[in-house]
Structures are given as structure tokens and as C-alpha cells.
Amino acid sequence: MTRLELRVEVEAPPATTWAALTDWARQGEWMLGTTVRVTSGDGASEGSGLSAFTGVGPIGFTDTMRITAWEPPVRCAVVHTGRLVRGTGEFVVVPRGDARSELVWSEDIALPLNLAFAPGVKWSLRRFAAFAREYRTP
């Protein structure tokens, strides 16, 4: 298992950061090479299923997850349920006043071929901060 915990400051209120983070259909706009879709439930409650394909074209892998905790607008936890990616993940939005927040992304994860994914997540979180700053709820 690999432990990863990354943080990014976001120039957006906590509720906006939460909404941007949990807009699964748009996660590919900021997450490197990843497309996420809801596979069961509503994607906004405990027990909902998610599927994230990471790759280029047809080459990549799918990471299936189940939401194990849903505490808007603060915390979402998942368990990775696929054959290749196993472990748990958690997203926490920390208020930093009315107009700012911090996103804490943590994972305890086993990856295929011991892939190093921290650089890609760091890059993606910087993109997320810009995405959340401009995010408007649908």
C-alpha cells in the first residue's frame, strides 16, 4: 500500500469547492487523463458506485469505487473495488474563511505495477484549484 496525502489551496468558498469536486461528469476537465462516471446510485450518497478510466484513447485502466462516506460539503470517502486498484481514498474540504478553502486528497492505495501517481495528482490538483475558482453549478 502507498500512502498519499496532498493539499491545495482553493480561491473558492467551501460549498463551491465541494460542488466542483463532486461534479463527477466534469472531473476529466481537471484530472489528468481521467473520465469519471456514476455506475450505481446517484453519485451523491453512500453506496453509490463510480468508475474512473485513466489513460489515453483505449490504453489505460478502470478504477471502480464505492462511496463509503458522504458528508457534504466536507468529506467524501471511497473504497477502490477494482482488480487493479485497491485501497481507500478520501477528499476533505477545509474552510479557510468565507471565500477560500483547502482540498485535502488522501489515498491508501495499491497500484498496478507500483505506478507512481503522485506527480499526476499534484498537477491535477493545481488544475482543480483553477477549475473550482471558476466553477458555476449547473
From TrEMBL:
SUPFAM superfamilies the UniProt entry points to: Bet v1-like (SSF55961)
Pfam families tied to this protein: Polyketide_cyc2
Protein name in the entry: Polyketide cyclase/dehydrase/lipid transport protein
Organism for this UniProt entry: Saccharothrix saharensis
Taxonomic path: Bacteria, Bacillati, Actinomycetota, Actinomycetes, Pseudonocardiales
